[in-house]
TrEMBL record:
ATP binds at residues 17-20, 231-232, 242. Belongs to the aspartokinase family. PROSITE patterns: ACT, ASPARTOKINASE. GO terms for biological process: homoserine biosynthetic process; lysine biosynthetic process via diaminopimelate; threonine biosynthetic process. This is Aspartokinase. Pathway: Amino-acid biosynthesis; L-methionine biosynthesis via de novo pathway; L-homoserine from L-aspartate: step 1/3; Amino-acid biosynthesis; L-threonine biosynthesis; L-threonine from L-aspartate: step 1/5; Amino-acid biosynthesis; L-lysine biosynthesis via DAP pathway; (S)-tetrahydrodipicolinate from L-aspartate: step 1/4.
């Protein structure tokens, strides 16, 4: 098929992001290519790695992987990628590119087995998006769209906090305007989510699920008119549809509410996604690449309805730390010392409650995460200041909506129906948009289901 080289203005650009399941195989990629083709404002495409690939890479990046397992993982990844490229009529060039990348990946993995570094981990983790972006550019060409690969590391400059790199917004804006924007008049550019490079040019990553955030940052940098997040569900639901089949898609939601949902664990969006969109006031659409005509969720500054209850988010694997010190009684400076330790280890606290002599705090502590975690070293350092107790196996539930702190009866509406569960650390009042609490992990789904039935279906 011939490729259509259409000139468009850079004044009205949509950044389209496709998640892992959307680019999992050839048929899925074709559906995404069709979405791009149908709307010519879609000029900048940000892709995740094909489903499953980043998980393989995470394992590959860990210490203690044997050479047999290493080869098996690389074979599994190669199988996923070549199963896509075998559908192309012209395969030689793309297969050579994939093979060259696999050789380079093997090199990093061997180096990692000799000496494990977080810098090397990020090199390894970045390969999923490197594969999928090259392949998707060719899928676009197959359907007659002038799609070209672009290396996001040229523009997405970050610090060297490997695994959770912070983006330099000034450099990103300047680079994107100089290197990326001019290409968009004639080409549809396909680039990688999740990855960037530090000031020395080493590869960095922005944290798991970071492709949404990359897409939003790029949309902000090129001053795009819209951002579309194409995933495997028809928008943002009232709660995770995997927890209850009663969950339903939300037509529109404000930036503030959606940002709270993302922060409190709704996996549909990376927690930081809405920050760039809010700064630049870019409306965000969330829809399903499997059913692009089935509607979705519009996230924007102003929305028509602002209900008290909009959704329920759930975040698993929370750790509760209680620090206790009799010296805290009438003393100032204790909390500052505790937070200095946490800041030094780049840990951020989610919920916090205090009593006269103790402070309870929760941390997001997901197993296998590439992010800063509450380690033994942090606990030992805190123990030099005070008594410390650590509890695992908890989930954080957030009820999200509007004017929650100024509405009568919220407490009883929420807690009356779940009074047979052990609810802890209720945090209410810090934000107008949420009320949060902890429950034992084993009860989390049931509590969400029950609350959903109470707040949304009755
Ligand atoms: P992608 O690979 O496209 O980034 P993710 O798996 O990261 O997709 O996010 C989509 C998933 O998020 C959905 O399949 C769904 O299970 C989960 N999810 C969690 N909370 C919500 C919610 N409130 N609404 C919709 N999906 C949700
Ligand atoms: N591929 C990365 C991950 O699985 C980033 C993303 O998909 O958003 O975490
Ligand atoms: Mg995601």
């Amino acid at each position: 098929m011939s490729v259509n080289v259409e000139q468009v203005s850079t004044k009205n650009i949509t950044v389209a992001k496709f998640g892992g399941t959307s680019v999992a195989d050839y048929q899925a990629m074709l559906r995404c290519a069709d979405i791009i083709k149908k709307n010519t404002t879609n000029r900048l495409v940000v892709v995740s790695a094909s489903a499953g690939v980043t998980n393989h890479l995470v394992r590959l990046s860990q210490a203690g992987v044997s050479s047999t397992e290493r080869e098996q993982i690389i074979t599994n990844i190669a199988d996923i990628q070549f199963a896509i490229t075998k559908n192309f009529t012209s395969q030689e060039n793309i297969n050579n590119e994939i093979s060259a990348l696999l050789t380079s990946l093997r090199g990093f993995a061997e180096q990692q087995a000799k000496q494990h570094t977080t810098k090397n981990s990020d090199e390894i983790l970045s390969f999923g998006e490197q594969f999928s972006s090259r392949i998707f550019a060719q899928v676009l060409q197959t359907v007659g769209v002038n799609g070209h690969y672009f290396d996001a590391r040229q523009v997405m400059k970050t610090d060297n906090l490997y695994g959770k790199a912070q983006v330099d917004l000034t450099q990103l804006a300047a680079n994107a305007k100089a290197l990326l924007l001019p290409l968009l008049t004639e080409q549809v550019i396909v680039t990688q989510g999740f990855i960037g490079s530090d000031q020395q040019g080493n590869t960095t990553t922005l944290g798991r699920g970071g492709s949404d955030y990359s897409a939003a940052l790029l949309a902000e940098a090129i001053e795009a008119s819209n951002l579309s997040i194409w995933t495997d569900v028809v928008g943002i639901f009232t709660t995770d549809p995997r927890i209850t089949d009663q969950a339903r898609s939300i037509n529109e939601i404000s930036f503030g509410e959606a940002a709270e949902m993302a922060t409190f664990g709704a996996k549909i969006l990376h927690p930081a996604t809405l920050i760039p969109a809010m700064r630049q006031d870019i409306p965000v659409f969330v829809g399903s690449s499997k059913e692009p005509d089935a509607g979705g969720t519009r996230i924007q500054r102003e929305v028509e309805s602002n209900p008290t209850y909009r959704s329920i988010a759930l975040r698993r694997e929370q750790t509760l730390v209680t620090v206790k010190s009799p010296q805290m009684l009438h003393a100032s400076g204790f909390l500052a010392k505790v937070f200095t330790v946490l800041a030094k280890h780049q840990l951020s606290v989610d919920l916090i409650t205090t009593s006269e002599i103790s402070v309870a705090m929760t941390f997001d502590n997901p197993h296998g995460s590439t992010q800063a975690l509450l380690t033994k070293a942090v606990v030992e350092e805190l123990e030099q200041l005070c008594e410390v107790s650590v509890e695992h196996g908890l989930s954080l539930i957030a009820v999200i909506g509007n004017k929650i702190h100024g509405t009568k009866g919220v407490g009883s509406s929420i807690f009356d129906k779940v009074n047979d569960f052990n609810i802890r650390m209720i945090c209410h009042g810090a934000s107008n948009h949420n009320l949060c609490f902890l429950v034992p992990e084993a009860d989390a789904n049931q509590v969400v289901e029950r609350l959903h039935a109470t707040l949304f279906t009755s």
